[in-house]
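Page 47, continued from p. 46.
Same chain as before, 126 aa.
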Amino acid sequence: MDHPVLSIDIAKGKSVAAAFSSYGVAVKKPFSFHHTPQAVAALLPLLDQLETSTGERPTVVMEATGNYSKPIASFFSSHGYAVVMLNPLSTHALKKQAVREVKTDSVDAIRIAKLFTWVEELLEAN
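Result:
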């Protein structure tokens, strides 16, 4: 990931996000937010900060979790951000590769960013 990313682990009612200026460079450690319009809109200044500091428009990356992810994806898309929806089976497979199984939403937000990076590298290589 050579560009900024906001990764989101979507859950029912509340999600966890983490912001990266580039691969492994966290700008904001994982934090939770509710799915209210005000809480989701409160993420826009963070995206603006990422864009200002990197000179590049951030990508929003999340798992495709149907009814929970669609409104959030739609919100960011309507504000001009590229939204990448990852297959939850792919992120689950990444969890299985871990030596110790750690299940926290904070760790999952980081794994989502890592998986996006790997997919992005594969696409660039081909």
